[in-house]
Amino acid sequence: MAPARFGQSELGAVATMAWRATARAFRMNATTSIGAIALLIIVLSALLAPWIAPYDPLEQNILESLQPSSALHWLGTDYYGRDTLSRILYGARLSLLIGLLSILLAVVVGTLIGLVSGYFGGKLDIVIMQVMDVILAFPSLILGLILVAMLGASVTNLILAIAFTAIPAFARIARAPTIALREREFVQAGRALGYSDSRIMFRHLLPNIVPDVLVMASLWMATAVRVEASLAFIGLSVAPPTPTWGGMVREGFENILDSYALALFPSLAVLILVLALNLIGDGLRDAIDPNLRTES
Amino acid sequence: MTAFILKRIGFAVITLFAVLTLVFFIVRVLPGDPASVVLGDQASAASIEAMRQKLGLDQPMVFQYLDFLGGVVRGDWGVSMATGRPVVAEVLNVLPYTIELTVAALILGLAFGVPMGIWAAVNRNRIPDYLTRIVSLLGLSAPAFVSAVILLLLFAIQFRWFPVISSGQDTSLGGKLRDLALPAVNLGLIMAAYITRVTRSAMLEVLSQDYVRTARAKGVPNNVVVWRHAFRNSLIPVVTVVGLYLGILIGNSVLTEIVFNRPGLGKLIVGALGQRDYTMLQGMMVIYTFIVVVVNLLTDLVYGLVDPRVQYR
């Protein structure tokens, strides 16, 4: 992989690498495109929810409690007579927001930790990676659950807790190529020219790490969405009546004998979003390492 | 081999110690004074102070830490704030249910995942490969509560083959199996999805090795090549990954236990969360840490058994 061209801004180089990998992924694989289309639809419905949702997601109508699918309510209504379709459309916002921001935070912090740890090496590296392994050893759902329970359930805390569980993965994925590249000629040339460590790290090493991090990010965003939904299902998410997919499944599950639709449709929504993100992640990985081809 | 085992055990003890320290500080550092949380908003300053003393929160942090570590070693994990019973007793009470579920899921996962992975690898880039790829991706995308709800809708409500809410009272073998079936299938399918992917990639790697080509060239039947030459060597990554995915299995067992209303660690921890039972939560984290570290240790050791080269490292 070519090092970033001199004079290009960090951001520009990072964006170029990211763009190339993504473009390759879509040229190669039909399933990646299916994932991307599904994700696009979900993102659009989340953004356009106020305009396309047939009802107010919070509007209760006890006369229409637990209705099956009909022309009026395509996906039926819940116990309070709220329209399930509208709630799913609005619920997508929270899933996407928390998934995206938590992984963004984990990417920034984790990559920074991995880059520094790998670049400087030595004792610092050993200690940092030991801490990361310890966090990674813990089941992410359990760790997230305890953190959210203690911090209190709010959007910010959910993002922080999920990001915390994902940071070690990004530290590791950023560290490996950093160590491999550290001794390469272009880095040594930079040192000989008297570049500062931070300039070498951010301008010359970082762009080469981006593809790996990108794959990891889309796969971990799938995990983040899954963990958020799971926490909401357990009851650790934004307080009702705000619609969350996990919370809707929970409510549907409590009324499962009266109406199957209530538990089924939000379940499918979670499944489709996570699947779409995983398909994209798989495709990106194939694009970056053609030898691997959807290997785990 | 002995040196290898000792080294691994030493490493496990260090990890355990590190995680216990992390657990201690997570519980202490996070906002919210346990004493005032237990007593509620209306509690007087005096009763909060009394509760802090009872919980040992008035002691310096160092003493609390040593006390905590000593307690963990002695098997004294404190008393549940909610039930007043020892945390260890509560945990041991439900642990067999979770182990039962996890082992059953693991067996199912291996029984389906390994053959499917081999089938996919042997038929690379043909229909069986695409089929297993889609199915396994679906399996690892489904959060455990989603698949559990779908299984429940299908087999308990639509077909009525299994009870919707298992009583847990039926202690006969048949009754126990009936209660275990759907939760185990739920967890097992997720496990199978992961195992399929790993087995496939491990098999693909081994099948491209020179010695496999040599075996084929000298006329060894395909069956023998796949099972004797390739499969045994692909076991190593499979074993490691099964160990690595234990965390996913544990997380998913929490959700599975909730949906199927099964007693176990998952229901215990969620109950403790609802009641703000800090000692119980701390104890749960300790037990989860134990499980993760012990399984990682076992994984390392099995790794050594499956791959004779490991002991020379």
Automatic annotation (TrEMBL), chain B:
The protein's predominant localisation is membrane
Where, by residue number, does the polypeptide cross the bilayer?
A: 9-30, 101-122, 134-157, 177-195, 235-255, 285-306
- Gene3D superfamilies per record: MetI-like
Q: Which residues form the signal peptide?
A: none
CDD domains in UniProt:
TM_PBP2
Q: Which Pfam families match?
A: BPD_transp_1, BPD_transp_1_N
Occurrences of domain ABC transmembrane type-1 (ranges): 95-299
- Cross-referenced InterPro entries: BPD_transp_1_N, MetI-like, MetI-like_sf
Which one of the record's GO molecular function terms can you name? dipeptide transmembrane transporter activity
Keywords (A to Z) from UniProt: Cell membrane, Membrane, Transmembrane, Transmembrane helix, Transport
Q: Its membrane topology, per UniProt?
A: Multi-pass membrane protein
State the GO CC annotations. Answer: plasma membrane
Q: Where in the cell is it found?
A: Cell membrane
Which PROSITE patterns does the record associate with it? Answer: ABC_TM1
What PANTHER family does the entry give?
DIPEPTIDE TRANSPORT SYSTEM PERMEASE PROTEIN DPPB-RELATED (PTHR43163)
Family statement drawn from the similarity comment of this UniProt entry? Belongs to the binding-protein-dependent transport system permease family.
Write the protein's name: Peptide ABC transporter permease
